[in-house]
Protein: Mutator family transposase
Amino acid sequence: MIEAAIQAELSEFLGQFEQRKTSEGKRGVIRNGYQPEREILTGVGAVSVRIPKVRSRTGDAVTFRSALVPPYVRKTRSLEAALPWLYLKGISTGEMQEALSVLVGPEAKGLSPGVIRRLKESWLQEDSEWKKRSLDKDRWVYLWADGIYSGIRASSERLCALVIVGVNNRGEKHFLAIEDGMRESIQSWKDVLLDLKERDLSSPKLAIGDGAMGFWGAMEAVFPQTTHQRCWVHKTANVLNYLPDSLQEKAKKGLHEIWMSEGREPAQKAFDTFLKTYEAKYPKATECLLKDREPLLPSTTFRRSIGFTSGRPTRLNRPLPRFDLGPISPEDASAKRQS
Structure:
């Protein structure tokens, strides 16, 4: 996205010199390679960028400077919050200028209407193609869903991106949908899931998400055969909030013992052990865990070879092991414990 914006800036910049010619009639200002690559630290990690250079053939000094990545800039602190807004408000409603001003920051130069127009045309085309791509080439076995607030408000409402990540039977993770909507709305999630189904997404084996979402009602309507799994990432954070700091590390290990168990029976035992350990002094913590006991345990009936690690994938560029989606039998669990 940043690279596309820089290229749009460069095209706009070179357009200012279209009439400048050499004595031989050639263009007076041309591209001239790139500056050394450097990293910009963003809220989503380090991003490598290369700023193009230009050369004047007429003897006049001409220098291209990017407004998005000014000289010596190493951090874009607002990027993590700005990217969802850039997508929702920039592409969805055409308010690209306002969205880019958040991404660029107050110290950067304003982007010209020409640059904005090129960016809108490019990103709208890419967005349209991405949303229409067929999903029938893979068997999607896991879905992770979450409603992510950007921390930025549009008018009086906080913007929310409804995100679905899929894992195929080769253990590869991919974004399947990123749409604006209401996190608690069944209809918002239903619209997203129906679109995925129309693009030939087959019924996944397991769906993982937080409890306070309309996603579950939508899944019942669109993919009724899919097993529901409550997100351990969210649940762990909620439980630890009711415990003192001095106990959180130990409690976290106890929670890991539950969802890392090889089968339902050892998971139930680990669950009961956690309750007995903390219910006397910290009843709110155990009540928080106990109310979602059954929705938290479906993953323990699947083979560990499917690569289930927690409530959601940690890195999209790191594949999981290949999948064997059969449920764990008592014999499998016994053999696994003895190995």
Observations:
- The CA atoms of residues 7 and 175 lie 25 Å apart.
- The beta strands are 29-34, 38-42, 45-49, 52-56, 75-76, 140-154, 157-168, 173-180, 206-209, 227-230.
- Residues 113-132 form the longest helix (20 residues).
